[in-house]
Amino acid sequence: MFLNIDQKNPADIAAIDDHEDSLTYGELVRFCDHFGEVLDKRTLIFILSENCIGAFAGYIGALSNKIVPLIIHSHTESGLFQNLLAAYRPEYLWLPERLGHEYGSEVIFGFKHYILVKTGMTPPPLYKELSLLLPTSGSTGSSKLVRHSYKNVEANARNVSLLFGLDKHERALAALPIYYTMGLSVISSHIYAGATILLTGKSLTDGKFWTFMKEHRATSFTGVPYSFEVLQKLRFFRMELPHLQLITQGGGKMDEKLFRTCADYAEKNGKKFIATYGQTEGTARMAYLPAHLASSKICSIGRAIPNGELSLVDEQGKLILEKEATGQLVYKGPNVTLGYAFSADDLIRGDENKGVLFTGDLARRDADGCYYIIGRIGRFLKLFGLRVGLDECERIIKAEYNLSCACTGTDKGMYVYITDGKFTDKVLDLLIRKTHIIASAFKVIAIPEIPKNEAGKILYSKLIKE
């Protein structure tokens, strides 16, 4: 079975959710057996996910029986959902029972508040090694998906488990969405280790989140930069959390001050803080910074995970051999996914990446072989002949004023969005001073909030230029 769940102690708890539903490994194996009896042939299924036992079991059940799931948010916008249905033609849906009346009439069976619904569609042919489909982390309103192989998912689970030294005694808080590659990595790596997953869909600002975390003695927490911004506002770094031993970060570059705060907190309180780097296209994690380097290598992504390789290439795609250098980051490893899908016709396609991923990220390598992300290669403007990094401008503003902000634009001008109008002139002056470009190149706009997805990533397409 998937991740050898049938070899775990059947009495051990595999998962608990914030509705206080729980599932032992033995119960999970029996569910997977039944899932396979009902879905007795390889096919395509959509999982409308929430962080709960039902969705978790559906994911494990699908992969244990060679059923290919596309995992999406249960609240996916109706238009996008209909586009995905039309584009990929799943034979089944696994969804919360409260949504059953919206998406189908033929209910096959139910489990832990989830039901299996038959769509009546004829599924497309599937590549034999295709295991899983996930939305690209940056896509909104798009049918573009990332195709994973069984080797990808298993390599990620094994390597992350090895990297973090996981064992059956871990109790991982799974607060990131299941449909998000980092959230799924938390689940897979801990199931591989025979540990317990603590599933919650509660917001970090909800008191019930903290009650759940403390009552179930969570030993690890994984967040994205936005998660840690919220934690800082909640004074997390003053909390007494004796059971929490491991804090991991992924999902983008963190502010330098906040990174240092996390590193200092871990060091002073006998915990580990491990920063990681990954993409959906690399099955979540491709690099990590060992905990003992967190204080000395601020904002570094470190080196490649076990069984992976990192390198840099120049603008012509040529390997950069110099020890200290800057270029596009390239990753090689068994967790590099098969490629993209845009429609059902692509699900029969094989491995197009061949284990090599050109990340699209500009990175710097230091003398010790540690890497630092500078920004996306496409996230640069040429203003009055000068190259300006949008990600770097965001970092400068956050570091100076601790403001939530987003930068976008064209070579004709940069749009800077901030959430506090009192800082409009100050931000403009800061950018002029740092970039040495005249004021007419920038337009600073105050908006109520920066649009972000549930993983905390900025939705640049939602920013309307004035």
Automatic annotation (TrEMBL):
<keyword id="KW-0436">Ligase</keyword>
<dbReference type="GO" id="GO:0016874">
    <property type="term" value="F:ligase activity"/>
</dbReference>
<dbReference type="InterPro" id="IPR042099">
    <property type="entry name" value="ANL_N_sf"/>
</dbReference>
<dbReference type="InterPro" id="IPR050237">
    <property type="entry name" value="ATP-dep_AMP-bd_enzyme"/>
</dbReference>
<dbReference type="InterPro" id="IPR020845">
    <property type="entry name" value="AMP-binding_CS"/>
</dbReference>
<protein>
    <submittedName>
        <fullName>O-succinylbenzoate--CoA ligase</fullName>
    </submittedName>
</protein>
<feature type="domain" description="AMP-dependent synthetase/ligase">
    <location>
        <begin position="7"/>
        <end position="340"/>
    </location>
</feature>
<dbReference type="InterPro" id="IPR000873">
    <property type="entry name" value="AMP-dep_synth/lig_dom"/>
</dbReference>
<dbReference type="Pfam" id="PF00501">
    <property type="entry name" value="AMP-binding"/>
</dbReference>
